[in-house]
Write a structure and sequence with these properties.
By secondary structure, this protein is an all-alpha fold. It is built from three helices and no strands. Helix content is 85%, strand content 0%. Helix 1 (2-27) crosses helix 3 (39-72). The mean pLDDT is 84.
């Protein structure tokens, strides 16, 4: 049941992440040499980042949870 609530909490965080990306891209556009982009483009970039990083985050979290168990028997 805990995984369900984490998934429900991730939904609003997607929209907040896209909004923050749009804001910070607009602030740093001249420094980075890019044109400021809108919310829809920001959503596309955010979902691309989430799809790219989610497997890596999942692998690290699974590895981190089993890490303590493997060291306890090696003493």
């Amino acid at each position: 049941m805990d995984a369900f609530f984490k998934l429900v909490a991730a939904g609003p965080m997607f929209f907040v992440s896209a909004w923050l990306l749009m804001i910070f891209a607009g602030i740093t556009a001249s420094d980075l040499g890019i044109r400021p982009f809108g919310y829809l483009t920001s959503m596309l970039v955010t979902i691309g980042l989430w799809l790219t990083l989610a497997p890596a985050v999942g692998a690290v979290s699974r590895r981190g949870s089993g890490k303590g168990k493997s060291h306890s028997g090696s003493s």
